[in-house]
């Protein structure tokens, strides 16, 4: 089942460290099967507030997403971003191709009693 690393990043002044991070980050995904799905897009906000840009990286599974984040290659460049850009980063399991929200609701309804 796919997993995703998501980052919500606040606007900042572009500098050399950020550019170096951007140049190097994609190569850290390869050993873990990761690929950009969204990179730095400004979301169209339909509800609430969203104070920045969005990054989504897809991995084949949550174990590989975690392994990428903990990898020496990524940890080496991570400070280039964290010193310069505020934001949050999460890893989340995705759903498989046969996922059906109605079946999930039925299980939830049955568990509720």
TrEMBL record:
Cited InterPro entries: Dimeric_a/b-barrel, DUF1330
Q: Where is the DUF1330 domain?
A: 3-95
Q: Which domain of life is it from?
A: Bacteria
Q: Name one Pfam family in it.
A: DUF1330
Residue ranges that the Swiss-Prot or TrEMBL entry lists as coiled coil: none
What name has this protein been given in UniProt?
DUF1330 domain-containing protein
